[in-house]
Amino acid sequence: MEAYAVGRRFQVKADENNPITTALTSTTFDLEITKQLSVGPGRRCQVLVVRIITDSNAVLDKVYVAKCYDPTLCPDVERTEWPGGTQQNCTSLKNTETKAYKILHQLQGTDLPTFYGVYKYDIPNNISSRYVEADAILLEVINHSTLGDIDPGDLSPDEKLELKRLGDALLAKIHNLGVYHHDITPENLLWDRRKSLKLIDFEAATFRDGNGSDRTKEWIALDRGKLISLLEGYGIKDERPAPAPWFFGWSV
Q1: Where do the domains of the chain lie?
Q2: In the chain, what is the straight-line distance between the N-terminal and C-terminal CA atoms, in Å?
Q3: Superfamily, domain 145-249
Q4: Domain range 9-140, CATH class
Q5: What are the pLDDT digits (tens) for 81-110?
Q6: Which end is more exposed in the chain, N or C (fewer Cβ atoms within 10 Å of the end residue's Cβ)?
Q7: Is the Cα dihedral 131, 133, 135, 141 positive or negative?
Q8: Could you tell me the pTM of the whole model?
Q9: Integer CA distances (angstroms), 103 to 27, 74, 171, in order
Q10: Which of 198, 205, 210 is nearest to 179 (CA)?
């Protein structure tokens, strides 16, 4: 059986208490994979839908998205950039995403998925490996389409205006809280085509420097430029003057 096949179970242990462990009165429980979302060698993490199996073998009704940072399947990295190798890179990605969700806690459940903590687990591979343990985070399941699943030609003029309004507002919210996404793509925006737009995947995020030595204006312009470029692909024009040749030319 492949490491992250549907039906496979593996035990996780929470790094700290969270709403799940409080409800279960245990920091350790099993996850059972019910669906694969983004799985396979060469991916930065394995993205799954999972359900919780308690120590009494009871199954909880609710399902979650699990992002598993498994170094046995992550792409190789340059040692000059990551002296600790792939495992260090996986840990860094997990730490960045975790930090973003914690800073943006007030937006969880509305503008981004609810975050349910970090977990350690033994890598469920059938082959010997120098890696034994990995990290996972659990997130709320969002039943929206990604923007990449929506044909731009199917959008009405009102939907285009609403998408632009929601995108602008979402970026303003995370930037006001000191988080800069850097990976605004159709696959990272979940939209129900009515009123809810959610942003996911904060692995590449950067954060406001409390010492005032950050690159806030550049980072805002980068996110804004990526959003403008994305929306133009959906036939949505920005109302401001034409941009400079690259994203940092946008006024912020």
Answers
A1: 9-140, 145-249
A2: 51
A3: Transferase(Phosphotransferase) domain 1 (1.10.510.10)
A4: alpha beta
A5: 777 888 888 999 999 999 999 999 999 999
A6: N
A7: positive
A8: 0.89
A9: 23, 26, 14
A10: 205
